[in-house]
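Minutes, structural biology subgroup

Action item carried over from last meeting: produce the structure token record for SMAD family member 7 (Chrysolophus pictus). EB confirmed the sequence was re-checked against the source entry. Recorded below for completeness.
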Amino acid sequence: MARLFILSAFFFLLAESPPPPYSRYPMDFLKPTAGCPDSVPSSTETGGTNCLAPGGLSDSQVLQESGDNSHWCVVAYWEEKTRVGRLYSVQEPSLDIFYDLPQGNGFCLGQLNSDNRSQLVQKVRSKIGYGIQLTKEVDGVWVYNRSSYPIFIKSATLDNPDSRTLLVHKVFPGFSIKAFDYEKAYSLQRPNDHEFTQQPWTGFTVQISFVKGWGQCYTRQFISSCPCWLEVIFNNR
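Output recorded by EB:
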């Protein structure tokens, strides 16, 4: 009984405790092996900005016309090429995104229904568990992996500004990474480039896949082939 009580208390604290202090990866350790870059730009992978919301407006139009800039990001959940559920607007400084988190408060993926889920999607969904926590801090946005499996992240601010491709970074359970840097993102903008004047700019978007990676180091070349993944779009206003 005493052991059961200790275990129950441990899981309760794990569910309620914030991620800091982080176990932070050295950036060089996170990078894939040489010769395995992710060569596909974000904008060609997801088509996320073309997904229609209720009323026939795209998500970017909904955000643009709402006039509400109080959110610092919105989150879209995808299963392969299908977006499931509506955009989740984030106003609090941190957000838990999880499948099953005891007394969890945030974006519960386990409550989202979808028709014709494949067995692989169902299997990966069940492994999301405690999921991740997004936290907006002074130096940027950190992603803390609270699940029991790796997550995979691609962000324009994680790599060398001169890089022609973006790498996919693997984050193991219990570790975190600064997935987005506002100062770096603004410095990467090219206002005269037509591609970068569209909303939302891909440099303000982070992609996160649960359990399965993608890119040239993996069998899945595109994130849209991953069973369960997130698209996090940051407010650049």
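Discussion: The longest helix spans residues 2-16.
Next step: EB to file the record with the rest of the batch.
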